[in-house]
Specification:
- With 174 residues, the chain is mainly α.
- It has one domain.
- The protein is 67% helix and 0% strand.
- It has nine helices and no strands.
- The protein is globular.
- It starts with 5 loop residues before the first helix and ends in a 5-residue tail after the last helix.
- It binds zinc ion.
- The site of zinc ion has 9 residues, from helix 2 and helix 3.
Length: 174
């Protein structure tokens, strides 16, 4: 998974070995051919790989990474607070917090654009494109929206899923 040429290898239709416990119902894991919609397992793996690549890029840019980390922490806290609230519209409030975090990421990207030229984001963009094939509509939409905001986007998709845990715990929802 750490091999930077991993995705290229898949595109070249090389043999892909399935590790124990890795399942795939969409064929992508075995063929490397991206289907219109990935199965849930491939979707989760794609998000994890996107996030790993995001961490790799941010590790090269400590100041940017610290700013992104602060936005992620505050967004997560605000989202959880909204979801725990029994007043108002907790789910749309949580979504609004995610959106607000995304706008802050976009400002950070502009502020750090000179540093950003030092790291390649080709693979990050490639994996963002893969996550845009997720089976879950809300994941797809969030990934596409956040990818335009720059680094931190993959973490935002993870936060969306984090929030979904609360969502599905609500009585009468899912
Ligand atoms: Zn699959």
């Amino acid at each position: 998974m750490d091999d930077l040429d991993d995705l290229d290898d898949l595109d070249d239709d090389d043999e892909v070995l399935e590790l124990p416990g890795e399942h795939c119902a969409c064929g992508y894991l075995h063929t490397g051919v991206v289907p219109p919609q990935l199965c849930l397992d491939c979707g989760d793996r794609a998000i994890a790989r996107w996030r790993d690549e995001e961490k790799r890029a941010l590790n090269l840019l400590p100041a940017y990474a610290a700013d992104v980390e602060r936005v992620l922490r505050e967004t997560r806290d605000a989202q959880r607070k909204a979801l725990r609230s029994r007043r108002g519209e907790p789910f749309s409030d949580a979504d609004w917090e995610l959106d607000k975090g995304g706008r802050r990421l976009a400002r950070l990207r502009r502020a750090h654009r000179d540093e950003l030229t030092r790291v390649g984001l080709d693979r990050w963009n490639e994996l963002a494109g893969l996550v845009a094939h997720d089976r879950r509509e809300v994941t797809r939409k969030t990934a596409k929206r956040m990818a335009k905001r720059g680094l931190g986007a993959a973490a935002m998709v993870e936060l969306l899923h984090d929030g979904s845990v609360y969502y599905f715990q609500q009585p009468g929802r899912g």
